[in-house]
UniProtKB/TrEMBL annotation:
Annotated NCBIfam families: resist_ArsH
Cited SUPFAM superfamilies: Flavoproteins
Keywords: Flavoprotein, FMN, NADP, Nucleotide-binding, Oxidoreductase
Name of the protein described by the UniProt record: Arsenate resistance ArsH
Species of provenance: Aureobasidium pullulans
InterPro entries: Arsenate-R_ArsH, Flavoprotein-like_sf, FMN_Rdtase-like_dom
Domain NADPH-dependent FMN reductase-like positions: 88-230
PANTHER family, sorted: ARSENIC RESISTANCE PROTEIN ARSH (AFU_ORTHOLOGUE AFUA_5G15030)
Family annotation (Pfam families): FMN_red (PF03358)
Essential cofactor(s): FMN
Signal peptide: none
Quaternary structure and interacting proteins, as annotated: Homotetramer.
One Gene Ontology molecular-function label: nucleotide binding
């Protein structure tokens, strides 16, 4: 054995591939690719972007100061290439509490993706009925399904309750079918997962979310976030009436500086990069051998049915000819 191994090579570093360190570009310090308010749809902004605060906060908060030059460069280049076709990200959270920490974390995730230039929409689970086989046409059900079909990727944030994800969150996934006719609302989408806990750090919920994502035929990115003792991780709410205090508090209810916050940025940056790379191959990732085989069998069955119908039609016409007394005034029976 070699005596030159790093720390005994406990992490098997000898087999690692060489990687290039990307140097941050100071030209992107403070830069945002967010949709300008003047160009945004007012109705969508009011309904699906509750994470947005005042311009003063957005331009000076911790997210505006975060170093995201690599992802911003990729986003900028992609929008130039696609004519401004932004990534479409749906964000789901799993609590209906007034001060829901999963919602607060979902908002922080949304703000990061928003700065990177994504079209971010947060679904409000309030009013969504408990899953049954009757209420498929309920407005909240239809809204959720349409948002999933619209999206390129998802962010799922759930609290951990009794060691696993909440009913509020699971109910949303249960209402999203694997397929609606020929459309699969989640297949091929990317997925980032995160959880908040009231106690010590746990990974039960993110593990369950990862299983759910795989079942829904989504690409769950490798990274994930688990925020422990969530009640200690966010600043207090702040009344916007006191403008100076509101701006100073970055709007209030914000994620405090910590390694947990850094991990959230890592996860959202990773989701953005994966989605950007994979979106252009969306149709390719949705192409499966078993489904091609199923489509071909269906096509052959339809051809067989058509042939039988045509044969039945020809035989029916022949029978009509035989039994008819006259055709076009001619006595075909020779009577």
């Amino acid at each position: 054995m070699s005596n030159n191994r790093v720390h005994g090579d406990l992490n098997n570093t000898e087999v690692m591939r060489e990687t290039n360190s990307l140097v941050p570009d100071p030209a992107y310090d403070g830069k945002t690719l967010a949709i300008p308010e003047a160009e945004d749809d007012a109705e969508i902004r009011a309904k699906y972007r509750p994470f947005l605060t005042s311009h003063e906060v957005t331009n000076s908060d911790w997210i505006a100061k975060s170093e995201l030059s690599t992802a911003l460069k990729l986003s900028e280049a992609d929008m130039e290439k696609t004519g401004g076709d932004r990534l479409k990200i749906l964000v789901l959270y799993g609590s209906l509490r007034d001060r829901s920490y999963s919602r607060l974390l979902a908002f922080e995730c949304s703000r990061i993706l928003w700065r990177l230039g994504a079209d971010v929409r947060v679904y409000d689970p309030s009013g969504l009925p408990v899953k049954d086989d009757v209420q498929h046409q309920h407005p909240k059900v239809q809204e959720l399904r349409e948002l999933s079909k619209w999206s390129d990727g998802h962010v799922w944030v759930s609290p951990e309750q009794h060691g696993n994800l909440t009913a509020v969150f699971k109910n949303q996934i249960d209402w999203v079918p694997l397929s609606t006719g020929s459309v699969r609302p989640t297949q091929g989408r990317t997925l980032a997962i995160a959880q908040v806990s009231g106690g010590s750090q746990s990974f039960n919920t993110v593990n369950s979310l990862r299983i759910l994502g795989r079942w829904m035929r989504m690409f769950a990115i490798p990274n994930q976030s688990s925020v422990p003792m969530a009640y200690t991780q966010f600043t207090d709410a702040q009344n916007s009436a006191d403008r100076d205090a509101f701006v100073q508090a970055e709007g209030g209810s914000r994620l405090k500086p910590s390694g947990n916050r850094d991990r959230v940025v890592d996860v959202m940056e990773e989701l953005f990069k994966y989605t950007l790379v994979m979106r252009q191959h969306f149709d390719l990732f949705g192409d499966r051998h078993s489904e091609r085989k199923e489509r071909e069998m269906k096509r052959l069955r339809e051809i067989e049915v058509t042939k039988k119908e045509e044969k039945a039609g020809i035989e029916g016409n022949a029978t009509s000819m035989i039994t008819a007394i006259t055709v076009n005034g001619i006595d075909v029976k020779g009577a």
